[in-house]
Amino acid sequence: MNSNFTVHKRKILLIYTGGTIGMIKNPESGALESFDFEHLSRHLPELAEFDCDIQAYQFNPPVDSSDMSPALWCDIVRVVSDFHPLVDGFVILHGTDTMAYTASALSFMLENIGKPVILTGSQLPIGVLRTDGRENIINAIELAAQFDEHGNPLIQEVAVYFDQKLLRGNRTTKCSADNFSAFTSYNLEPLATTGINIKYNFPILLRPDKSAPFTPHFHMDASVIAITLFPGISQRIIQHVFDSEDVKGIVLRTFGAGNAPRLQWLLDAVRKATLKGKVVVNITQCQQGTVQMGMYATGDQLRKAGVVSGHDMTVECAVTKLMFLFAQNLNADDVRRLMEQNLAGELTVGELS
User: Fold this and answer.
1) What is d(CA 103, CA 251) in angstroms, rounded to the nearest whole number?
2) Which domains does the chain carry?
């Protein structure tokens, strides 16, 4: 790994975790398999043309997106923490299937990061003629290396870059398995868009608390489950999950503005779980919009039973935020309170929530 930096150049660490972008076709089976960073860099001679010093760190072996886990998030945090004093920004190459989960988790685990942490990847491997990976990497590095006249990075948070859009990491969800525009942020505008020029949405860019240090967190508590309500959902299954001693937090994906069927057994299960110290968070199944439990009786019943509002958080964000908060050894009341607070730009607090 090259550690020779010149003073005037920005220093970017490229972290290759794996994913489609670095895959190569197995000549025998025809299946795509993870390769290594050398394969990736051979297809990106443009890396040598940047007016910044690029270091590379590779996970060995590379991780398929479907195999990403809280333990691997902690590994990423360790790498970022170790290099934080040494570099000006980070670009993380990651598989697309779980990228929104990783971006959401890192937004909490890299507290007060103060530097760009941009996740990107591709829908087609870098060695394929029509790959989207080349443009995604080039633009992600360019964004990570942009600074203002005072020497401060323009991006100072965890973000996802894909297909000309830079999105807040904990507001992002994968919306397409087929299109190059694979990610969107339904409840927040892009942080920046890239065309002939880069256009920044300055009013919504996060800025760190300069009075507080960068604080990495190396633990997550995965005692969390997400449940999607649907007509006819089984009472026995719900009660089994809510009664489980292994579950501390439940993300309840409800209808519309946070509504649930008026089933007494469901409300009883929620009340019982809340009294036992479990945290139940209400988020909507809708792609866009927010939970407003005070709007309809079918939502207000959940609030009275102890459910807290997830406002307009994505399911990826709600799940990883619970994992993060439980890992801080907080009591249930503090977790409930913080789930409704904006910690890293992840939610918009509504009047009726």
Assistant:
1) 18
2) 10-216 (3.40.50.1170), 224-339 (3.40.50.40)
When computed from its CA atoms, the radius of gyration of the chain, rounded to whole angstroms, is 21
Summarised one tens digit per residue, pLDDT across range 41-83 is 676 777 777 788 888 898 888 888 889 999 999 999 999 999 9
99 vs 18: CA distance, rounded Å: 11
Question: Rounded distance, CA 116 to CA 340, Å?
Answer: 25
Half-sphere exposure of 214 (CA within 13 A, CB side): 19
20 is catalytic: yes
Q: Are 158 and 170 in contact (CB under 8 A)?
A: yes
Indicate whether 353 pLDDT > 70. no
Looking only at the bridges linking them, the beta strands covering 10-16 and 165-168 are unpaired
At position 54, the amino acid (one-letter code) is I
How far apart CA 351 and CA 281 sit, in angstroms, is: 17
The torsion angles phi and psi of 71, rounded to 5 degrees, stand at: -65, -40
Closest to 166 measured CA to CA, from 123, 95, 103? 103
Q: Cis check for the bond before 70: say yes or no (omega within 30 of 0).
A: no
Catalytic residue selected from 17, 20, 96, 274: 20
Give the 3-state secondary structure of residue 203.
Answer: helix
pTM, two decimal places: 0.90
Q: Is 256 left (phi over 0), alpha (psi -120 to 50) or beta?
A: left
SS3 54: strand
The residues with which 165 forms a beta bridge, in sequence order, are 162, 193
CA–CA distance, 159 with 130 (Å, rounded to integer): 25
pLDDT score of 6 = 37
Contacts of 130 (CB under 8 A, 6+ apart): 124
pLDDT digits (tens, 9 = 90+) for 11-28: 999 999 987 676 665 555
Q: With DSSP H G I counted as helix, E B as strand and the rest as coil, what are the percentages for the chain, rounded to 5?
A: 30, 20, 50
144/155 Cα distance (integer angstroms): 7
